[in-house]
Design a protein that fits this description.
Layout lengths: L2 H4 L5 H13 L4 H7 L4 H4 L3 E2 L7 E2 L10 H6 L8 H35 L11 H11 L8 H17 L13 H10 L6 H11 L8 H31 L5 E5 L9 E6 L3 H11 L2 H9 L5 E6 H11 L3 E3 L4 H6 L3 E6 L7 H7 L4 E4 L10 E2 L7 H15 L14 E5 L3 H9 L7 H8 L5 E5 L11 H12 L2 E5 L1 H9 L7 H5 L2 H10 L4 E3 L6 H14 L11 E5 L5 H12 L3 E4 L9 H15 L3 E3 L3 H19 L2 H18 L1
Parallel strand pairs: 4-5, 4-7, 5-6, 7-8, 8-9, 11-12, 11-14, 12-13, 14-15, 15-16
Antiparallel strand pairs: 1-2, 3-10
The protein binds iron/sulfur cluster and Broken Fe4S4 cluster.
């Protein structure tokens, strides 16, 4: 076995299924990653294919300094410089990522409106408190109006956010005042969500914007339209519609699949259908139908961010994260994999063909050649969900090739929405972030880190997430996590309160034990990174840690990113004042000037910058150094020294 192969994953269930795939001769993303090397010119952002005179390749010279003459000659046919090309490529990633999150948000707004109009009878307002708070924030009249009437006005206002041409996005005012001023001064406040994405696509078209700083300004605007627009709208309305998450205990990893039950995996991002499947699959009539086919019932499990959504709200177990999607099918135990949008590999259909598994697409925006298509319609949500579940049940007797389910699974406590953290820390009547801020000020908690993002088949699965997070919590940094990163942490046993004692530094362990929370808080799916923005804002508003997000002892990371959405998220984190470190690969290294703009110059403008560090321990050190610098600037570094002394004493006592 090659060195590369031994390091495919740190997750035992994944390794077990990879061994089965290999024995059965089934190709997975892991095999393809070994066979196909990434194009080095594309990887560093030095290839432009924005017109038919290209593709033009302008790679940076390797292993030697470039002369001025060489640099001048390094341009595309139209004369576009390496800086322009790298900036265009980077910003097109932002545009695509923002479009993906925001189109998810748009779809939720549509479902919300249809519900409010009384046309989606299977849905209702589950969190009235949040609905009313949103109404107040958006200036929607409450009075004696019904939830439906209020919801309809909210839906219309949210819909308008997408097509707005002028002014400012409504949720911008959720940010600290100082941050809003920075954005206004720099001219990056988004006007309307769609407008910013379209304008970014226009400006990166051949022969338009050819000043990387100016291109990037629009890149920031589109990213902010995602974080404080499309994504935030998605999270807020999903909470109103399906309930705001609160702590829930469940399980994670391929071991949650059941040999004696019909296994349905829900995979993708938008929770509307998944909500209905969660409801329907537990019904007695469905269980009876499953029994009639020889199964004990229906076992629903999640994959990728849909998994995070239904875990947070219903405790539905998670089968795995991004790189485990094919492996779930290779257990031979999956009757149906039901997908909607984003992060769904086309390779699934090939793998499904080796077993009895039905790959079912449900969204008109995302079909897969060869897969079955059952369109989901919010107005007939229950009907659609029943049709899907029955298709899966009918498939149970067709199992072939043997079932092999790994035993590996871990308990996970999820459901840490901003509202829940507020409540857990402060209590029902004095809900606040004050205790968190106090523990940061007194040094028990050194700082806060958002560790988010995907898996990437170019790096060992889950390894960087787990190493980075362990390094942070060992150094008393509380971690907030979303997406596939959160799942990596959960599979490593870091999302249970007991993890505090085993993995954390003394100060963080003490706080987690007192409050009864894990040291890594699961905050949801990738659209829910907006929850981290709101949590950071709440910390600023509670006082004692400066006037802006950039002053907080906080940092962000995506150590195994792969999606364009991750670049959009990273950019709105940076533009919101969060120092952000990415691992795996970095897509602008072909232009030193543009890379320095992101890694250095942004700090002056936004109080935060990007960094790239593929070694997760070094990445954690960068984050901790940043946190310590912010502590010093706030004048709270002394408190931390005192706590270190206490820890030494504690060790002495324990010894
Ligand atoms: Fe080449 Fe310029 Fe066309 Fe890009 S826009 S492909 S650099 S000619
Ligand atoms: S699912 S975007 S691989 S986090 Fe949101 Fe995971 Fe990244 Fe997809």
């Amino acid at each position: 076995m090659s060195e590369e192969r031994r390091q495919r994953s740190v997750d035992p269930a994944t390794l077990e299924m990879l061994a089965r795939a290999s024995a059965e001769g089934i190709n997975t993303v892991f095999d393809r990653a070994e066979k196909m090397k990434p194009c080095p010119i594309g990887a560093e952002g030095s290839c432009c294919k924005n017109c038919a005179m290209g593709p033009c390749r302008v790679p940076a010279p390797r292993g030697k300094e470039e002369t001025t003459e060489e640099k001048k000659a390094r341009v595309g046919l139209c004369g576009a410089t390496a800086e322009t090309i790298a900036a265009r490529n980077f910003c097109r990633m932002i545009a695509a990522g923002s479009a993906a999150h925001s189109d998810h948000g748009r779809r939720i707004v549509e479902a919300f409106r249809i519900m409010a109009e009384g046309k989606a009878k299977d849905f209702t307002v589950r969190d009235e408190q949040k609905l009313l708070k949103l109404a107040l924030d958006m200036g929607v009249e409450i009075g004696s109006r019904s939830n439906q009437e209020i919801a309809l006005d909210i839906a219309h206002r949210c819909e308008a956010e997408f097509g707005k041409q002028e002014g400012e996005l409504l949720f911008i005012k959720n940010a600290p005042l100082k941050r809003q001023e920075i954005w206004r001064k720099l001219g990056v406040v988004p006007r309307g969500i769609d407008r910013e994405v379209v304008e970014l696509m226009h400006r990166t078209h051949m022969g338009v914007d050819q000043d990387y700083r100016n291109i990037m300004r629009q890149g920031v605007r589109a990213a902010l339209a995602d974080g404080w627009g499309g994504s935030m709208i998605a999270t807020e309305l999903q909470d109103c519609l399906f309930g705001t998450p609160s702590p829930v205990l469940s399980e994670i990893n391929l071991g949650v699949l059941r040999e004696d039950m019909v296994n349905i995996i829900i995979h993708g991002h938008e929770p509307t259908l998944a909500e209905m499947l969660a409801e329907v699959s537990a019904e007695e009539e469905i269980t009876a139908y499953a029994r009639s086919k020889g199964a004990k019932g229906v076992n629903l499990a999640g994959m990728c961010c849909t998994a995070n959504e239904v875990l947070m709200r219903h405790g539905v177990p998670i089968a795995g994260n991004f790189l485990q999607q094919e492996l779930a099918i290779i257990t031979g135990a999956v009757e149906a994999m039901v997908v909607d949008v984003q992060c769904i590999m086309q390779g699934l259909q090939e793998v499904a063909g080796c077993f009895h598994t039905r790959l079912i697409t449900t969204d008109s925006r995302a079909k897969i050649t060869g897969a079955m298509h059952i369109p989901f319609d919010e107005q007939k949500a229950r009907e659609c969900a029943i049709a899907i579940v029955k298709t899966a049940i009918d498939n149970f007797p067709n199992r072939r090739g043997g079932v092999h389910i790994p035993q590996a699974k871990q308990p996970v406590v999820a459901g840490f929405s901003h509202e829940t953290i507020n409540y857990l820390l402060g209590g029902l009547f004095r809900a606040s972030y004050r205790p968190l801020n106090d523990n940061i000020i007194n040094g028990r908690i050194r700082g806060v880190a958002g560790v988010v993002g995907c898996n990437n088949a170019r790096t060992p699965h889950d390894s960087a997430h787990v190493t980075l997070i362990k390094e942070l919590i060992k150094n008393d940094v509380l971690v907030l996590s979303t997406g596939c990163g959160a799942m990596a942490a959960a599979k490593a046993g870091l999302m249970v309160p007991e993890a505090a004692k085993e993995f954390c530094g003394g100060g963080l362990a003490e706080v987690c034990e007192a409050v009864g929370i894990p040291p890594v808080l699961h905050m949801g799916a990738c659209v829910d990174n907006s929850r981290i923005l709101i949590a950071a804002t709440a910390m600023v508003k509670d006082g004692g840690l400066g006037d802006d997000i950039s002053e907080l002892p906080a940092a962000g990371a995506a150590p195994e990113w792969m999606s364009e959405k991750a670049i959009a998220i990273g950019q709105y984190f940076v533009a919101s004042g969060v120092f952000t470190v990415f691992g795996a690969t970095w897509p602008t290294l072909g232009s030193r000037e543009f890379t320095e703009y992101l890694f250095r110059d942004m700090e002056e403008m936004y109080g935060a910058r990007w960094a790239f560090e593929p070694d997760p321990v070094k990445a954690a050190r960068l984050m901790i150094e940043h946190i310590d610098r912010r502590r010093k600037a706030l004048g709270i570094d002394k408190a931390r020294e005192r706590i270190l002394y206490d820890m030494a004493m504690r060790r002495q006592l324990e010894g």
